[in-house]
Amino acid sequence: MTTIEQVLESRNIRVTAMRMLIYKFLAEKDIAVTLSDIENAFVKADRTTLYRTIKTFEENDIVHQIDDGTGITKYALCEQDCNCEIGTDLHLHFHCNNCNETVCLTEHKIPQIKVPNGFVSENVNLVVKGICDKCSS
Question: Which of 34, 50, 56, 115 could link 119 by a cystine bridge, Cβ 3.0 to 4.6 Å?
Answer without folding.
Answer: 115
